[in-house]
């Protein structure tokens, strides 16, 4: 399977490295590869992960069988628009982003929120994609290595396409998520619920002083 | 300790019955006691709980040493305004309500949300109260009997007044909450986080087909 990860931040790189270590082909998509490679942090990471390639959004989307949205939530639609509709048709998009809005300071608010969500916005804007919202409710190290948190904890799935959710479930299994920890909430509308976990996630990080925790639904 | 529970719905009655069973004096506050007693459901409950009294909002607030806000979130400020500022001075208000807005159908949205919360709105509107937001993230049976859900699960505290949070912590202990399950998030601003759990709580109830679950913060 060839994965295209949209977004060059720590979340995208962490997922890319994990997919690479599992033997998948991985291309990371960015607006301008030259600018990305000029960032010392990215260049160092690229050197440590020579099998992962870097391309602009349309080329990355063209190459990927499955796409992962790891861009900032506020620019996700722009990135996918740039990726070119012809390269999205019928593909699964795993949306792990959150629409955090830092314009009013920290902690960020969400936009959209409550009566809409980023997951829905992407699905609505790109109906040719099969959007599955997942993994957006924890730090990226835990996404790809759930054993980092001791005890049972939960990852959520939201999406309209049952086959796409089944495929993403399989990918989560390969990351180490037990079946009993993968909770299908229903359609993409339920992404409102998981995105709205971010405000308490941020305040928990503040109260606990670390981000090595996750939500567990006890009694599910 | 004498508790005044504002609100005659199932949440208020469940908390009132538990406080009564623990030997506290309990008065339930409502807009018009005559109208409340004319409701067959309430009258039957009242007959089963003869030690719990019913009064209008100002009289209930006058009698209570500690207040519990179990009104609908959209009418909480109106109920407290009716309760009369003179009866609130210096008292702890345990806010277990959520600002659910059913005007757009089900599932409800929240108002206020994200950049404000009901907990903050009440604290801001009634600075003479010491507001502690808690228990609003689970069904009311679990609030007063956490052993209903097997395994570890979490109750959150938000509030500005350390002594008030300590007193509420003690009340939660008497309900059966172990110390390790009571998680102090910080100031009343953190109520934004717990109120924003409601959207996923409602969707979990839909996906699971029951409400006998609770959030647990694994790794806290």
From TrEMBL, chains A, B:
Keywords: Oxidoreductase. The keyword Oxidoreductase applies. It comes from the Bacteria. Coiled coil: none annotated. GO terms for molecular function: oxidoreductase activity. The keyword Oxidoreductase applies. It holds the Pfam family F420_oxidored. This is NADP oxidoreductase coenzyme F420-dependent. It comes from Streptomyces lavendulae subsp. lavendulae.
């Amino acid at each position: 399977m060839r994965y295209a990860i949209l977004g060059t931040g720590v979340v995208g790189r962490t997922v890319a490295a994990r997919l690479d270590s599992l033997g998948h082909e991985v291309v990371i998509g960015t607006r301008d590869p030259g600018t990305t490679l000029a960032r010392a942090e990215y260049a160092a990471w690229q050197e440590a992960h020579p099998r992962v390639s870097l391309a602009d959004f349309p080329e990355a989307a063209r190459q990927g069988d499955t796409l992962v949205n790891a861009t900032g939530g506020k620019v996700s639609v722009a990135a996918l628009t740039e990726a070119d509709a012809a390269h999205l048709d019928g593909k699964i998009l795993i949306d792990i982003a959150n629409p955090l809005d830092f314009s009013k300071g920290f902690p960020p608010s969400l936009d959209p929120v409550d009566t809409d969500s980023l997951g829905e916005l992407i699905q609505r804007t790109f109906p040719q994609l099969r959007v599955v919202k997942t993994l957006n409710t924890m730090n990226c190290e835990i996404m790809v290595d759930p054993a980092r948190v001791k005890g049972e904890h939960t990852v959520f799935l939201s999406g309209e396409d049952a086959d796409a959710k089944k495929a993403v479930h399989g990918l989560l299994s390969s990351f180490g998520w037990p079946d009993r920890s993968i909770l299908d909430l229903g359609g993409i509308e339920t992404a409102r619920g998981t995105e709205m976990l971010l405000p308490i996630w941020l305040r928990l990080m503040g109260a606990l002083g670390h981000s090595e925790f996750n939500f567990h639904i006890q009694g599910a």
